[in-house]
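Notebook entry, structure prediction.
Reason for the run: the old model in the group folder had no record of what sequence produced it. Starting over properly, with the input documented here first.
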Amino acid sequence: MKAAVYEGEKKFLVKDVDLPNLGDRQVLIKINYSAICGTDVHAFMYDVIPVGAVIGHEYCGEIVQLGSRVKRWKVGERVICGGGMPETNSVIGPAADPRYNYRTMGLGTVHSRGYAEYVILDDWRPLHIPDKVSDESAVLCEPIAVLVHAVRASKAKIGDRVVVLGAGPIGLICIQVLKTMGVSSIIVSEPLEHRANAALTLGASQIINPFEKNPVDVVVKSTEGIGADIVFDCAGIGESINQGLLMLKKFGQLILVGLSWKPVQILPVEWMGREVSLQAVFAHSPNDWKIALQLLELKKVTVSPLITSKSFIKLEQIQEAFERLIQPESDVQVIIKF
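New structure, fully documented this time:
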């Protein structure tokens, strides 16, 4: 099969690789779509992807082969890449390690994932795609699950004044999940015009260009001098974390969604007096995946305008796409179409 293999030093090489042997409790999935995640772009930027790895964790496809003991699936079923629960109900993922560190552990066990024509998964791991959900929508189920997890971890409620920092794919999904909770006042900080326009289309009540105005000053003024109830940092850069803490009201809450790979400089004396809280969130639970699928099925969350006809690329274009996404000028979401 063809796969984008990481060669080190910010280089992918698309080449033929062998598929591992299919285990008796595993399924072979032909990948139809695989989305490029901002987390993967950061790992690419800082050259922390293991050499020889095939990464990619936002993908969907159809089952083309079953292990000898697989009973729950049929060939031809459409599935997303995760969300299932092992029959033993054992703890999986980051929660399994009390000292989990994404920087040192998150990519260390990656071998073969979504930037390839096929993938092998344990039979409990995928979830069935409802008939009313297209593959083009299902491919973003994983990031939707991330935001379901983040919003559920917050204290968001009807009437709250919320700020979303960053209107990339994560920020745009965050807006939609917040609206399902009844939150109507959503201020978005985003410098890129096309992403800001997408945020307005999806229901943002106000846009701040942080290159033109100080987001903290604008939020405080827009909330009658009080500050935001909750801020979702979907940008994952040092300055956004600092801004999020500064713009909170007394007892406000910062939800840290975006992953920052650089040291962050903050001055606690500026905001400790307001007794604000910082809630880090990471990844998702199986239930978050199921809720994400339901939101797609009920059309409570849409992948438009994240995905347009210009969003799709071929696997052979992955190197160019990653280089472009380091400083995106016109892209919102990029998806490999197989």
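Summary: The mean pLDDT is 94.
The old model has been moved to the deprecated folder.
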